[in-house]
Amino acid sequence: MLSNKTIILGITGSIAAYKAAEIASQLIQAGAKVNVIMTKEAIEFISPVTLRAITGRPVVTKMFDLASEFSIEHISLAKAADIVVIAPATANIIAKLAAGIADDMLCCTVLATKAPVLIAPAMETNMYNNPATQDNLSKLKARNFMIIAPATGRLASGKEGPGRLTDITDIIGSIRQVLGRGGDLAGKHILVTAGGTQEPIDPVRYISNRSSGKMGYALAEAARDRGAKVTLITAPTSFPEPVGVDVVKVGTAQEMRQTVENVTPQADALVMAAAVADYRPTKTAKDKIKKGEAGLTLELECTPDILGNVKGNFIKVGFAAESSNLVENAKQKLKQKGLALIVANDITATDSGFGADSNRVTIIDREGKVDSLPLMPKREVADKVLGMVAKLLPKPKSRRPNKL
Ligand SMILES: Cc1cc2nc3c(=O)[nH]c(=O)nc-3n(C[C@H](O)[C@H](O)[C@H](O)COP(=O)(O)O)c2cc1C
After folding, report:
1. DSSP code, position 2
2. With a 6 A CB cut-off, is 264 part of the ligand 1 pocket?
3. How do the pLDDT tens digits run along the chain, 404 residues long?
4. DSSP for 193-233, written as a single string
5. Is it true that domain 6-179 has CATH number 2.60.40.1180?
6. Catalytically annotated residue among 4, 92, 136, 209
7. Residues 290, 293, 294, 295: what is their CA dihedral angle, to the nearest 10 degrees?
């Protein structure tokens, strides 16, 4: 999705400048072409040689560079860019951009570009909270710059507070989100569920399953990157919340059912990748059950069938984890639950399914068409599924991007 995209990475004179090398590296690995512009203060913190080596492209550090490959640099770079990302962004560059100053190559390029501009501030808490900085950020927001708020954490001074450059994953996620705004799910609301629900036995024990939530999170990110507004309803997982996605955390199948029913009236599609527990204890003990000599017998009851029971004007996509008769069982489930698509995977394979980074799935549609895909990363599976979902959804008269 980042392949064929040209990204300007602006680096300014912050102690967090070294993190820009990792941002550049991740963008390159995702297939983007990265043109780096560094302010003269930035090169005090990290060498242009590092960025030159990572991007394989010349790095712009001066306003007047006759050896450069670009004719009138700020214009040609600005024109070629799909997005401009300034990370880290100092209080100084934020002030200069808010004032429309054009005394270095980065400011000139931002003034000259029609591409979206994304800013990731990094500075001491007092500098960040200063009304001057906050006013400047408000001005930039009002001009449609996208600001990725800094994280709260340990700062270079040793103090804790807001001002730390936000996680690189969130910066890359925001870039993907902005670049995907005109995608085939623009204007659509996709609801994704993820993870294995937990059905409590007592205050410390529960029944669950081996679902990691990876497939659901990959679907949520892929839907975001195709322009959708995304709600992710997630059972407990070890993953951070994906940037640009509305996340609702739930525990039990009953909580997931309630939340799904609350959100589906606004949704265009429900993609149910969560592994909802099929059974739950009939009673939850109020106190921790003491270990005894005699063993313990639990009485279980069925949990609600979320996918089968939820109704409305949206398309339903289900997942089926099967250990035998994959296609037959999946077809039956598709019919029973009134699905538009079912994604079946063979959980006996060791390289795919629960917890793995990749999945080998078979996608079956309502007409009975069976598409058996090779082993591929979960993100690619997500894109295959969402490509089919996009085709099933009515085309908007004009594709209006969702607001960020
Ligand atoms: C060691 C050191 C660390 C700095 N870290 C930051 C920072 O994290 N954020 C910031 O806004 N300014 C920081 N500054 C101040 C900027 O480098 C200074 O405002 C500079 O003029 C920014 O120039 P630029 O925005 O053109 O890159 C730091 C200065 C020093 C000496």
Report:
1. -
2. no
3. 788 899 999 999 999 999 999 999 999 999 999 999 999 999 999 999 999 999 999 999 988 766 666 555 668 889 999 999 999 999 999 999 999 999 999 999 999 999 999 999 999 999 999 999 999 999 999 999 999 999 998 888 888 889 999 999 999 999 999 999 999 999 999 999 999 999 999 999 999 998 899 999 999 999 999 999 999 999 999 999 999 999 999 999 999 999 999 999 999 999 999 999 999 999 999 999 998 888 899 999 999 999 999 999 999 999 998 878 889 999 999 999 999 999 998 777 766 667 678 888 999 999 999 999 999 999 999 999 999 999 999 876 555 565 55
4. EESB--EESSSS-EE--S--SHHHHHHHHHHHHTT-EEEEE
5. no
6. 209
7. 60
Q: What is the best residue among 18, 40, 41, 154 to mutate for testing ligand 1's pocket, by most ligand atoms within 8 Å of CB?
A: 41
**For ligand 1, is residue 303 a contact (CB within 6 Å)?**
no
Output phi, psi for 131, to 5 deg: -55, -30
The burial of 331, by beta-carbon neighbours within 10 Å (0-12 exposed, 13-18 middle, 19 or more buried), is given as middle
- CATH 3.40.50.1950 maps onto the chain at 6-179
Q: CB–CB of 363/273 below 8 Å?
A: no
Residue 208 CA: distances (Å) to CA of 59, 105, 259, 348: 51, 55, 19, 19
Cβ-contact 39, 65 below 8 angstroms: no
- Ligand 1 atom closest to 123 (CA): 9
CA of 163 relative to ligand 1 center, distance in Å: 13
Burial class (CB in 10 A: 0-12, 13-18, 19+), 327: middle
Q: In Å, how far from its chain's centre is CA 64?
A: 38
Which amino acid does the sequence have at 332? Q
Indicate if ligand 1 lies below 6 Å from the C-beta of 12: yes
Q: Where in the chain is the domain with CATH 3.40.50.10300?
A: 189-392
Superfamily in which the 189-392 domain is placed by CATH? CoaB-like (3.40.50.10300)
State whether the Cα torsion 376-381-384-387 is positive or negative. Answer: negative
User: Could you tell me which of 161, 86, 100 has the C-alpha nearest to residue 128?
Assistant: 161
